[in-house]
Design brief:
The chain is an alpha+beta fold. It is built from 10 helices and 15 strands. The chain has one domain. 35% of the residues lie in helices and 27% in strands. It has a 6-stranded antiparallel beta sheet. Helix 4 crosses helix 8. The longest helix has 18 residues.
């Protein structure tokens, strides 16, 4: 099934509102860190000699059971509150209150000198990073038998996105890298900001477009708004939307088993030069052994053509 070209009023609304800039969290520019197990490190850095291989899992198979629904529940709460405070009219409230996240994704493609918007049904995949280079909470995910067996790899978001876009330029996919919004106050602020802007622009002729803009934005928020219970992760995530039901597969879907569940995932190939650091989790041994392991890691990285990569071990002083 081909995509639908979005025309006239919706094009104007999308450009005017600047959705990706104004109503999403600010771009994060510092280094980000992907925590993984020893076998995960092997797969990411050493499976393919020509590049780094990241795995992005389908969003509805992640460990957070509320994944994808926080934004929709909060949106209804904000609509009710704004109506009660007369920040939106009854007419506007009736128009927007029952809107759900879009079932299709707005894919933006540059074709020669033109930019085209297409609505496509997509599968959504997530690869998670953290802002924190040395987080005990994150190392705890890789604790086994009172030992920490994890690593994290450090990358720059800008370099990562450029590398992904260059590899996937001819695919029907959408790539975004966003910091997660955990604070309810900030989630409410972003929702209200959009609704107040739409209230200003409201005209009867724009009703269909207003509903579409909100539906599309709810889809964007669905994988960016999370519960404060997960705030310790300090997550930055790559979100990859992969088109479905089109001629030819834009990307191969793979499957793995975890905790008795079958999880679909995609492999994201990126360039080796974007690797900035590899960090070893808390080691329960003396400094001599820690320095030895750090040296062996450097040797292995060099042998696999990773150059100028910083390596170190966690400074967290855990005993067990």
């Amino acid at each position: 099934m081909g995509g639908i070209i979005i025309k006239s009023i919706l094009d104007e609304f999308h450009i005017l509102l600047g959705l990706d800039i104004s109503y999403m969290p600010k771009e994060y520019k510092n280094d980000i860190f992907h925590y993984t197990s020893p076998s995960g490190l092997d797969s990411i850095l050493f499976e393919d000699f020509d590049g780094i291989t990241l795995w992005a899992s389908r969003y509805d198979c992640l460990n957070d059971m509320s994944e994808g629904v926080v934004a929709q529940y909060l949106y209804k709460e904000v609509c009710d509150d704004m109506r009660k405070k007369h920040e939106i009219t009854d007419e506007m409230y009736s128009l927007i209150v029952g809107i759900s996240p879009a079932r299709t994704k707005l894919i933006v493609k540059s074709e020669e000198e033109n930019i085209k918007f297409r609505r496509l049904e997509c599968d959504r995949f997530v690869c998670s990073f953290s802002k924190n280079k040395d987080s005990l909470a994150m190392w705890n995910y890789y604790s086994k038998k009172n030992r920490y067996e994890g690593y994290n790899i450090g990358l720059t978001p800008i370099g990562l996105k450029k590398s992904l876009e260059s590899v996937l330029i001819d695919k029907d996919v959408s790539i975004h890298i966003y910091p997660i919004v955990y604070k309810k106050d900030e989630q409410i602020r972003l929702i209200k900001k959009l609704l107040l802007r739409l209230q200003e622009l409201y005209e009867e002729q724009y009703e269909t477009s207003i509903r579409y803009v909100i539906s599309n934005q709810l889809l964007e928020w669905s994988l960016v708004f999370k519960s404060e219970y997960f705030e310790h992760e300090e997550e930055i995530r790559i979100i990859v939307d992969v088109a479905k039901n089109i001629k030819g597969k834009p990307m191969d879907i793979n499957y793995r088993n975890s905790h008795g569940l079958m999880i679909p995932y995609i492999k994201l190939k990126v360039d080796k030069p974007i690797l900035k650091s590899v960090n070893i989790g808390p080691l329960q041994c003396g400094d001599k052994q820690k320095n030895l392991q750090n040296g062996i890691l450097k040797e292995r990285l060099s042998a696999n053509n990773y150059l100028n990569v910083e390596t170190c071990y966690s400074k967290i002083p855990v005993r067990y």
